[in-house]
Write a structure and sequence with these properties.
244 residues; alpha/beta; Rossmann fold; three-stranded mixed sheet; 35% helix
C-alpha cells in the first residue's frame, strides 16, 4: 500500500500544467474526500471471491470517462466476477461528414479525462455479439460523449431494455443515466446523475435525488467520479441480495 501511495504522489508531483481541461486521476485519488476510491485501488479486497460466478457487462464506447471505466473493471474483477467490456463496432459514416477513426478502433475504445483525450482500452466483446441476458449486471459509465453516442444506438438501448426486462441489475453513473433514461427505465424511479442532467431526467419522468448513489428496485445510479465507491458498493449490495 505504501508503494502504491508513493507512486500516486510521484505521478501527482510530475503532472505538468494541462493544455486542456482534464480530470486528474492522481489529484482526485490524493484528496482525503476520495479516500474510499483510493482504497479500491491500493487495498486488497476483503473478499476476493465475493462475486465469483457472476457476470457483469460494462457497456461503453469512445469518450468514456477513464477513471470510471478503469475503476469499475478493476473493482469487480478483483472480487471474482467475470467482467466484459462491451462496445459497439467501429462506426461507419458517409465520407461527406469527414469523420475518421484510427485502425485501433477495431479493437479498442478511446477514453477521456473530462475533456482531454485519455488513452485506448481494449474491449472484450462487440455489442453485436453480446446478449444482456447472459449477465447479472449491466453498467453504463459516463463521460459525456460515451453515453450521448450510446443513447443514439438502437442496439445499446435494446441491450439495457432487455436486461431490465429479465430482472437484471442495470446501473449507470455520471452521464450514463442518459442511456437508461432513453431506454425508458427511469420513469417513476428515484434516480441520480450528473447534476446538469436533472432537467433531462425529470422531464423523462424520473424523481431526481441528489445523493452519491441511489437504488430503486434493480436500478442503481450515481452522480460523478467522486461517487465511484458508493456506486460499486450499491451494486454489491444488490448482487449479494440476489445470491441469498
Amino acid at each position: 500500500m505504501t508503494r502504491n501511495i508513493s507512486l500516486l504522489k510521484a505521478l501527482l508531483n510530475g503532472e505538468a500544467s494541462p493544455s486542456v481541461p482534464k480530470l486528474s486521476s492522481a489529484q482526485l485519488l490524493d484528496a482525503p474526500e476520495n479516500k474510499a476510491i483510493l482504497d479500491i485501488w491500493v487495498l486488497p479486497p476483503d473478499n476476493p471471491r465475493l462475486h465469483v460466478g457472476r457476470k457483469i457487462a460494462v457497456l461503453a464506447t469512445d469518450g468514456v470517462e477513464e477513471i470510471e471505466i478503469t475503476t469499475l473493471l478493476h473493482y469487480f474483477r478483483s472480487r471474482g466476477a467475470q467482467v466484459d467490456l462491451i462496445a459497439p463496432k467501429l462506426p461507419g459514416y458517409p465520407a461527406y461528414l469527414g469523420i475518421q477513426f484510427p485502425a485501433i478502433r477495431e479493437t479498442h475504445i478511446m477514453t477521456i479525462t473530462y475533456i482531454a483525450e485519455g488513452g485506448w482500452i481494449k474491449f472484450d466483446r462487440l455489442l453485436d455479439d453480446a446478449t444482456s441476458g447472459e449477465y447479472d449486471v449491466v453498467i453504463v459509465p459516463g463521460g459525456t460523449w460515451n453515453p450521448d453516442t450510446l443513447r443514439a444506438d438502437a442496439k445499446a438501448i435494446s441491450f439495457v431494455q432487455k436486461a431490465a426486462a429479465a430482472d437484471k441489475i442495470v446501473a449507470a453513473i455520471c452521464h450514463g443515466p442518459w442511456v437508461i433514461s432513453d431506454a425508458g427505465l427511469t420513469r417513476g424511479k428515484r434516480v441520480t446523475g450528473w447534476w446538469t442532467m436533472r432537467p433531462d431526467l425529470e422531464n423523462a419522468g424520473a424523481i431526481f435525488i441528489d445523493e452519491p448513489a441511489v437504488t430503486d428496485g434493480k436500478i442503481v445510479t450515481s452522480r460523478a467520479p467522486i461517487d465511484l465507491a458508493a456506486f460499486v458498493h450499491a451494486i454489491d449490495n444488490l448482487l449479494v441480495k440476489t445470491v441469498s
